[in-house]
Amino acid sequence: MIEVIKLSKKYHDQYALQNVSVTMNSGEIVGLVGKNGAGKTTFLESIAGLIKPTDGEIKINGKKDYNYHVIGYLEDNPYFYDYLTVKEIIHYYYLMQNKKIKSEKSDQLLLDYGLLEKRDVMVKELSRGMKQKLAFLLAIVHNPKILLLDEPFTGLDPVNLKMMKNKLSQLKKKGITIVLSTHILSFASNICDRVLFLDKGKITYILEGSRLTEKALEEKFNEYVV
Ligand code: ATP
Predict the structure, then answer these.
(1) Which of 138, 158, 37, 20 is nearest to 90 (CA)?
(2) Which residues does ligand 1 sit against, CB inside 6 Å?
(3) Closest residue by Cα to residue 93 from 30, 142, 46
(4) Interstrand relation of 55-60 and 2-11 (parallel, antiparallel or unpaired)
(5) How far is the centre of ligand 1, averaged over its atoms, from the C-alpha of 190 (Å)?
(6) By three-state DSSP, how is residue 44 classified?
(7) Distance, CA of 214 to CA of 191 (rounded, Å)
(8) Which of 42, 73, 185, 196 best tests ligand 1's pocket when mutated (most atoms within 8 Å of CB)?
(9) What are the backbone dihedrals phi and psi of residue 48, each rounded to the nearest 5 degrees, phi first?
(10) Could you give the 3-state DSSP secondary structure of residue 98?
(11) Strand partners, 178
């Protein structure tokens, strides 16, 4: 469970997040929608510990000083070690987690994500969508309890979008808390249990349950964001 309590982040004299409070439960997929600059990345980066909030606090399972290893983070425009092969980068991530490298396991992961044939290809030679899938795979390689995904669907074709949706459902069933930002409202309505509308660093509306339809998302987006 993630508790965000009165969270604020100020850059210069402007608030990127202002007094945001929300609780996200195990096995829940929470969507973040909002215009460019609304504060979605800042929200995710704060939970991931990549930036220090100006005010407020974040607790995971009741603990303020949580171990960041419980988190998997997919950043927007992921940075890659371009001159490593796909296999090398996965093994590098295993090593960072002090885990033994199991080639069969990494091959299985690559197979699951349709990347096995790219195993010995340098990362710089992958397409945008392939890099996005690799970045997702790297975010989950250490079996995190919390998955923070900044625009995870960027660059994916319809087949891979469906695959990603299935993967997220499987992870949800395992009790993993997933928080994702997206500009694709149809996807947010389709996959999320709850959608938070962010505008100028504040949560302005929440849609959930049977009220969470694509039509309602579009309507409320126009009302509470634009
Ligand atoms: P997008 O949909 O474009 O990815 P977003 O909702 O993720 O946008 P953020 O990246 O969280 O928005 O940015 C929120 C606000 O904080 C913006 O006004 C942005 O200019 C500002 N901001 C973000 N990072 C920094 C930074 N490192 N220094 C100064 N201002 C920043």
Answers:
(1) 138
(2) 11, 16, 34, 36-42, 76
(3) 142
(4) antiparallel
(5) 26
(6) helix
(7) 11
(8) 42
(9) -75, -10
(10) coil
(11) 29, 147
What is the pLDDT, as a whole number, of residue 98?
66
Name the pTM for this structure.
Answer: 0.94
pLDDT at 138: 92
Give the Cα separation of 178 and 29 in Å (integer): 5
Q: Give the residue among 75, 196, 89 at the shortest CA–CA distance from 147.
A: 75
- Are the CB atoms for 60 and 146 separated by under 8 Å? yes
pLDDT score at 99: 66
**Cα angle: 143, vertex 74, 99; to 5 degrees:** 35
Ligand 1 atom with the smallest distance to the CA of 17 is: 14
Give residue-wise pLDDT tens across range 159-198.
999 999 999 999 999 999 999 999 999 999 999 999 999 9
What six digits make up the tokens of 215? 């039509």
**25, 81 Cβ separation under 8 angstroms:** no
**Stretch 27-48: mean pLDDT, rounded?**
97
Among 41, 43, 73, say which to mutate for ligand 1: greatest number of ligand atoms within 8 Å of CB. 41
The terminus-to-terminus CA distance of the chain in angstroms comes to 30
Regarding an ipTM greater than 0.95, the answer is: yes
With a CB cutoff of 8 Å and minimum separation 6, the contacts of 136 are 74, 113, 149, 152, 164, 167
